Amino acid sequence: MAKVSAEQLGSEPIGKLLIKQAVPASIGILVMSLNVLVDSIFVGNWIGSIAIAAINVVLPVSFFIAALGMAIGIGGSSIISRALGAENKGKALKTFGNQITLTLLVTISMVVLGLYYVNTLIPAFGGKGAIFDPAKIYYTIVLYGIPFLALCMMGNTVIRAEGKPRFAMTAMIIPSVGNLLLDYVFIYIMDWGMQGAAWATTGSYILCFGYIFWFFLSQNSELKISLADFGLHMPILREIGSLGFVTLARQAVTSITYLLLNNILFNLGGEAMVAVYAIIGRMLMFALFPVFGVTQGFLPIAGFNYGAQKFARVKQSIYTAIKYAAFVATLVFIGLMVFPAEIASLFLDSGPDLPPEELAVNTFVLEHTPAAMRWVFAATPIIALQLIGAAYFQAVGKAVPALLLTLTRQGFFFIPLVIILPNFMGELGVWSSFAIADVLATLVTGYFLHREIKRNLTGA
Question: Rounded to an integer, what distance in angstroms lies between the CA atom of residue 31 and that of residue 419?
């Protein structure tokens, strides 16, 4: 796989460049997603379906804190890409140093608060009844590793902003493989149950951090920062904050979505219904990996060329990214529509030797998941426009439209729909809200992206 330098982002043919950027990103996301998927399969088969539901309850809290690192990473990486495009390496170095300091300060503070309010947060996110105890075990252990995960997510976006997608891919693969190996040791061999699952996850974060730390110390990175770069600089912090807030807001809304769905589904069908959503949630992370890979590959290309004022290349990168992402999204859609029952059966043991209560839960989950999955992914072929459109505004430093478009799907459409529709349609109201929100958000994003291209990129 060819190596990509920062300078090549402004000179190579867009199609070839996007493949170079998107393939490693897709592979990295695939391995991470497979990690989540296989981890859930291991937990479901070796611990039980309630354990899957418990992990699903914890995810929004831990992911939100980790997303602070991703927000700082993406916000700062947009600055770094444009600074490298404008040949302002000093600003790129100062930005990276500020990213590290800010990530440490914010995530450690949030972890302290997260541990203090553990007994309040878990029930609020749907950790009720039989789910509470395993959720608390998993949450407490995983939270210790969240600062490492936040630094990894921040560092990974910077690696990609440097034009080094292969290293970013490796940084995503290492914790995924590590987590699966540790799962096998801690859960299957040592029989640690939920504690084993949690320590495997935390250990994988530390492995990832070790690799990223090595990368920036090695000759592979162009960003060699000094102690002075760690000092917080308000203009850079404001720019990181305005752009990073887009990512943070998206994750905050995602966490609210988990909170709502876990509680709504618990009221509709108890722990079993929460387990249905847990499986679908894993597929939302896994199945769309190539679309997310194209989006990740698109970001540094758009940012670098916008910083270099090569607007024709920016416009070409938008159209090419949408075309590629739409193609792979359609393939994903076909697979999910044809094989939903087979996918659901991978997660659970439905053998006759199970205790009656667990067998009843698993049977319910296997019966309800296929139809739910078809509804949730019904609009998948059109989401490429939605994702690339929002990513464009973030890549070029336009924080306000990036924020609004990022919040459109879940914040403006999905949350109101999922609050209202189940009152009239029950379980179907929950699942159909996904597809309706996707269609509406894609229409809105398409309008604003088309207007932006006509105003600022046409004729460049």
Answer: 34
Task: Kindly state the tokens that stand for 343.
Answer: 């996918």
pLDDT at 443: 95
Whether the CA torsion 76, 58, 121, 414 is positive or negative: it is: positive
Provide the CB-side half-sphere exposure for 301 (13 A, CA).
30
Closest Cα to residue 295, out of 321, 265, 331? 321
> What is the largest distance, in Å, between two alpha-carbon atoms of the chain?
68
User: What SS3 state is found at 263?
Assistant: helix
Q: The pTM is what?
A: 0.68
Distance CA 41, CA 382 (A): 29
**Based on the number of CB atoms within 10 Å of its own CB, is 142 exposed (0-12), middle (13-18) or buried (19 or more)?**
buried
Count CA atoms within 13 Å of residue 135 on its CB side: 31
User: What CA–CA distance (Å, rounded) separates 104 from 146?
Assistant: 11
Contact 263, 40 (CB under 8 A): no
Mean pLDDT per 10-residue interval, the chain, length 460 residues: 57 80 72 66 72 74 73 82 81 88 88 87 78 85 87 85 82 84 88 86 90 90 83 86 76 79 87 84 78 84 84 89 91 90 76 68 83 93 91 83 85 92 92 95 93 78
Rounded to 10°, the helix 356-376/427-452 angle is: 30
CA distances from residue 108 to 87, 153, 154, 220, 303 in whole angstroms, order as listed: 34, 15, 14, 29, 30
Tokens of 52: 């899957």
Please tell me whether residue 113 adopts helix, strand or coil conformation: helix
Task: Say if CB 433 and CB 406 are below 8 A apart.
Answer: no
| Total Cβ atoms within 10 A of residue 454 | 10
**Calpha distance 248→67 (Å, rounded):** 6
C-alpha distances in angstroms, 106 versus 64, 72, 232, 235?
12, 10, 13, 18
DSSP 351: -
Query: Based on the number of CB atoms within 10 Å of its own CB, is 412 exposed (0-12), middle (13-18) or buried (19 or more)?
Result: middle
